Each structure stands twice: as C-alpha cells, then as structure tokens.
Input
Amino acid sequence: MVSYLRLIGFGPTGWGDQLLLAALMTLSVSAAAYGTGLVFGTLGAWGKLSGSVAARRAAEFYTTVVRGIPELLVIYLFYFGGSQGLTALARLLGQSGFWGLNSFMVGTLAVGIVAGAYQTEVLRGAYLAVPAGEVEAARAVGMGRLLMLRRILFPRVLRFALPGMGNVWQQVLKESALISVTGLAEILREIHIGAGSTDRPFDFYITGFMLYLLLTTFSGFVFRGAEGWSLKGERQVAGMRA
Output
C-alpha cells in the first residue's frame, strides 16, 4: 500500500503530477467535444424538425452514418486521414516531411461529431415533448419568435433534454480515452506510459479505473442537480395549484 501511494503520489518519484494534468486534459477535451457536439446536435435537430426536405435528409444522413460506425474509426479517419491529406498538400506546396494534425483539435472534432449525432435525437425528442398548447398560447398572446424561444421553448426543451444530455456527457467523457491513439496526454495515455515504464500495469490501470469513475460519478451529481433545479419552477406551480 505504501509503495502504491508513493507511486501515484506527488513526490519526486511519483506520477501524481502527470496523472493530474492528464485528468485535466481529459476534462478539457471532453468539454470541448461536448460543446462541439451540442452545436452539431442543435443543427441536426433543427434539420430534422425543419420543413425543408433537403435539411431533413441531410440530418438523417448525418445521424445514420455517424451512429452506424465505431467512434474509434471516426478518430482514425480524422487524424490519420487528415494528416495524410495535409502532408500531400504540403508536398504540393514544396514542403517535405510528415505534417500531422493537432491531437486536441482532431479529438475534439471527431468525438464532437459523434456526440452531435446523439445530441440531435436528444434535442429533437425534447422539442417534441413540449406541449403544443403552450406554444399555441404564446402565439395567441402575440409573443414573438425570439421571446417565445427564450421564455417557453428554451426552458422547456432544456428541462426535457437534461437527462439525455447527461448521458451524452458521460459517453463523451469515456470516449475521450479513444483519443489516446493520437498521442494526446489524457488519462489513458498517461496510464499506458506509466504502466510500461514502471512495469506495474495493474497499479496504473486500477488508478485509471478510479479516475474515470470519480469523473463520471461527479458528473452524475452535477447533472442530477441541474435536473432538480429545472424542476423547481414546476414544483412551485404545482404547489400553488394545490
């Protein structure tokens, strides 16, 4: 036990500093990918709910293709395929050598695009769950589109979407481990390095297990708190009616 604590501690022979930085990197790339996915998901949901046939078909194509292939393959396509294309372009411009893409940027985009496909369905379902009567009532009192979006649609869609959004976040957090194949120094990458250089793989992998479990558990508390906050107004209205 003492040997293990010394190994993962913050002393001169410990790996605590590297693992802490790796955990922060995991959170950073996950947050960036989640935000990117939210943008793609919003556009995808708008496309599926749009009256435009072209927009609906484009959104259907996006969600069908992205959800139908492994996430790791998407990362490979973006990182290695993109680097190959960048290298070919550099050679056309008279440059030599291999030109690789930034691991953080590629990981954010690849995982974000995958997350966006799932966010599309979460947001679309949340929008469809908003009672039509509330929208009709807002229109009846002359509420404009932007005001209706701010006071009616956004709060209600957020309320219905939060559970699904929490699930997508947990998915993104775990999928960030796949970005280790690009060399990004996140948790799994540092765990691999530590296990290989110290010949103590079990100690490092159990540490990685605990780090991911800590992050996902804390995230679960945060999203459950957000769900409770979103229900506060409905509970107040229900109490007034009672």
Q: What stands out?
A: The first helix runs from residue 2 to 8. Residues 20-237 form a domain with the MetI-like fold fold (CATH 1.10.3720.10). The radius of gyration is 22 Å.
